[in-house]
Amino acid sequence: MTATTYTNRQWIYARQPTGRVGADHYTLRETPIDDRLAEGEVLLGARYLSVDPYMRVQQHTRRTYDAPHPLGIVQQGGAVSQVLASSSAALRPGDWVLGYNGWQTHDKCHASQLHKLDPAAAPVTSALGVLGMPGRTAWFGLMEAGRPRPGDTLVVSGAAGAVGSLVAQFGKRAGCRVIGIAGGPAKCAWLTGRLGLDGAVDYKAFASTEALAAEVARQSGGVDIYFDNVGGAVSDAVIPLIKLRARIVVCGTISQYEGGIDAPELAPRVLQHLLFQRATAQGILARDFVHRMDELRTVVAPWVRSGEVFLDETVVEGFERLPHALNMLFEGANTGKLLVKVA
Ligand SMILES: NC(=O)c1ccc[n+]([C@@H]2O[C@H](COP(=O)([O-])OP(=O)(O)OC[C@H]3O[C@@H](n4cnc5c(N)ncnc54)[C@H](OP(=O)(O)O)[C@@H]3O)[C@@H](O)[C@H]2O)c1
């Protein structure tokens, strides 16, 4: 039988950025890929590719929770794909799968590296969102490190994003008063409207840390749990507002990713606040909870099906726009989960 050959388009991570990512940090490569498969392998056609802040963390020279992303290879990342050809008994052409196949339109891999999706049970893109890595981060980060109790005041930074909007909803379900912090009046209206939060603070509306802190203090009355997705000036404003035995969940510091990881900026020293309030601060990482994905699916999937928990999506159309989409995270151009749809 003659092989069918496809053109695989790949975004190659070519040069390390120092600030904003631009076209010269990636190169678009086209290579042929055919459907001749080893036993157990499948050929995939990518449908949705994930764009995540950790990609920018991996573009620093310093070791973080990861080694730096190697130059000259396909940008790594999560993908929802359809099977085009299969020599595995577990997968058939047309099946939907989640994999870590990176920014490319096609890939060959062993079926054991993929998680089969059921489109009838949940939208396939939820595997990159509420029932995937961001959902896992939000759920286990809040429940394990935040330890919410009814009546607690939970402040969430980056609240209109993928992780933040889920943390805010999980916090409401746990009986917390939830104040979200996000950039701009539209996102704040979305937080109090669609998400039903108890308050929202537009961090971009305040010229100083003191003024921002005064508004967070006014709306929150003090903080039992601070779920931090952004770090920097926002956290400088929130951390002095913690109450006795507060929990600070350090999830992300996106304000520092465009260069600040290699050369961290100086900031107020916060440890005394932890001492005075006998508070805890805990870093959390999604991959530490991979083995508990079944728990996430068991608990959260029914809420997704009933519409009680949702994750809005910002979908960018077109594979060629991937590097541009990565920058959108730093411009706050997304609400909820940012995805690229492969045309
Ligand atoms: N620890 C883990 O395992 C883990 C896993 C997933 C994500 N994270 C972290 O969680 C955070 C959110 O990730 P996500 O995937 O859910 O992304 P996201 O929140 O959907 O998108 C990023 C958002 O960050 C905000 N932002 C960008 N620059 C900022 C700045 N200088 N100051 C304040 N806010 C800024 C923007 O919203 P505004 O319009 O509100 O500015 C933007 O929409 C990131 O820090 C990420 O690294 C950690």
TrEMBL record:
<dbReference type="InterPro" id="IPR001478">
    <property type="entry name" value="PDZ"/>
</dbReference>
<protein>
    <submittedName>
        <fullName>NADP-dependent oxidoreductase</fullName>
    </submittedName>
</protein>
<dbReference type="InterPro" id="IPR041694">
    <property type="entry name" value="ADH_N_2"/>
</dbReference>
<dbReference type="Pfam" id="PF16884">
    <property type="entry name" value="ADH_N_2"/>
</dbReference>
<dbReference type="InterPro" id="IPR011032">
    <property type="entry name" value="GroES-like_sf"/>
</dbReference>
<dbReference type="InterPro" id="IPR013149">
    <property type="entry name" value="ADH-like_C"/>
</dbReference>
<keyword id="KW-0560">Oxidoreductase</keyword>
<feature type="domain" description="PDZ">
    <location>
        <begin position="54"/>
        <end position="102"/>
    </location>
</feature>
<dbReference type="InterPro" id="IPR036291">
    <property type="entry name" value="NAD(P)-bd_dom_sf"/>
</dbReference>
<dbReference type="InterPro" id="IPR020843">
    <property type="entry name" value="ER"/>
</dbReference>
<dbReference type="Pfam" id="PF00107">
    <property type="entry name" value="ADH_zinc_N"/>
</dbReference>
<dbReference type="GO" id="GO:0016628">
    <property type="term" value="F:oxidoreductase activity, acting on the CH-CH group of donors, NAD or NADP as acceptor"/>
</dbReference>
<dbReference type="InterPro" id="IPR045010">
    <property type="entry name" value="MDR_fam"/>
</dbReference>
